TrEMBL record:
Belongs to the peptidase M50B family. One of its GO terms (biological process) is proteolysis. One of its GO terms (cellular component) is membrane. This is Peptidase M50. The chain crosses the membrane at residues 132-161, 202-224, 230-249, 261-280, 286-306, 327-346. The lineage of its organism: Bacteria, Pseudomonadati, Pseudomonadota, Gammaproteobacteria, Alteromonadales. Its cofactor is Zn(2+). Residues 150-223, 229-268 form the Peptidase M50 domain. InterPro entries: Peptidase_M50. It is a multi-pass membrane protein.
């Protein structure tokens, strides 16, 4: 990932590295120094020479040195030119979190089906009218499958879930595209910006189901106060929907939580954990006959492949030990809360309201 980017003598000096200790220093687009993987050392020193034509000093000796601690993230550095201190600073996880992703040089456009598909997706994201069409399509699809009342309730649950993602994106200062409702699939919250840390991925992913938990609790309280059965139905089916999203299977929200925690430990643990999650998804898809989950698994497999392939080039700051524990507890509390609601409503004796519990019990 990119650790540092500063201006030095009119040129950009960029330091990139990985959790294993590998580092490269770039002067513009040219690699001028490299340190091989060595996770045991926290200190580093990069040195290189510059020849500046017309300069009275002739050849300049540049040194970037400092210390790097990954968990918790703390980067202290000094930039010296001919042994004269030019710049020094300390960066923490908050600095990385607020950093704008660097825009790399665009490559010449070449025709390909993959490229055309990507262009189509961008156009799809930018077209506001698509939101309305998808929302109308979702309402029609769910009304056809169930009823207009259930369709409206389901769309309410989906929007509230996706709003949780949007709220988390805005908390981190990310620009959002809004919410898209996809018929027979669910919802999608899109952002214009890229994340910088695994913690951002955790919070954005888990806030959707967590908002779903809040909605189910609110509906359950409303049911206790009014004895209106539709509120209990909304609470339990919304809980089941969000519990499904918390499955540790990519590209579901639970899969992103698992991926961020596991890959923060190391890439091998990340790969094994994601593959086990995929195996669980295959079993559930086969057992319940969920064709949609099978489709999502195919997408998730591609994500696992690219995540592992780019493990040494990742731009995401890993979670520290404290954040890993907090993320795991947050996940368990959310799953436990959703499961408790399904169990509680399932004890009412109503066959319709007991259906989610029967599905889980099977």
């Amino acid at each position: 990932m990119q650790l540092l980017e500063i201006e030095c003598l009119g040129q950009t000096l960029r330091l990139e590295g990985s959790l294993a200790g590998w580092q490269q220093l770039f002067w513009g687009d040219q690699c001028v120094s490299q340190i091989n993987a060595n996770a045991d050392s926290e200190t580093f020193s990069h040195q290189f020479s510059l020849h500046r034509e017309g300069s009275e000093q002739g050849e300049l000796q540049v040194e970037l040195k400092g210390s790097l601690q990954w968990q918790p993230f703390d980067l202290q550095f000094e930039l010296l030119v001919n042994d004269e201190l030019l710049q020094e600073n300390t960066l923490t996880e908050k600095d990385i979190e607020q950093r704008q992703i660097a825009q790399h040089t665009k490559q010449p456009i070449k025709f390909s089906f993959v490229g055309m598909a990507g262009l189509g997706l961008k156009l799809l994201k930018s077209a506001k009218v698509i939101k309305v069409l998808f929302a109308a399509g979702s309402l029609a699809a769910y009304s056809w499958l169930f009823s207009i009342e259930f369709a409206i309730a389901l769309i309410l649950c989906l929007v509230f879930h996706e709003y949780g993602h949007i709220k988390a994106m805005k908390y981190f200062g990310l620009k959002t595209k809004g919410i898209y409702l996809i018929p027979f699939v669910g919802g999608l919250a899109l952002s214009d910006d890229k994340i910088n840390t695994r913690w951002q991925d955790i919070v954005i992913s888990i806030m959707g189901p967590f908002f779903g938990l809040i909605l189910s609790v609110a509906c359950l309280i409303g049911y206790w106060l009014t004895d209106i059965e539709i509120l209990a139905g909304l609470a339990v089916f919304n809980a089941l929907l969000n519990l499904f999203n918390m499955l540790p299977v990519l590209p579901l929200d639970g899969g992103h939580v698992l991926k961020s925690i596991a890959f923060s430990i190391n890439s091998k643990v990340g790969l094994v954990a994601c593959m086990l999650g995929a195996a669980l998804g295959v079993y559930i898809s086969y057992y319940f006959g969920l064709a949609l989950l099978g489709f999502l698994l195919a997408i998730g497999s591609i994500e696992i492949f690219f995540e592992y392939k780019r493990r040494h080039l990742s731009d995401l700051l890993p979670l520290n030990r404290y954040a890993q524990i907090v993320s795991a507890l947050w996940y368990v509390i959310t799953v436990g809360g959703l499961s408790a609601i399904i169990w509680f409503v399932g004890q009412t004796g109503n066959d319709a309201l007991s259906l989610p519990l029967k599905i889980l019990a099977s």
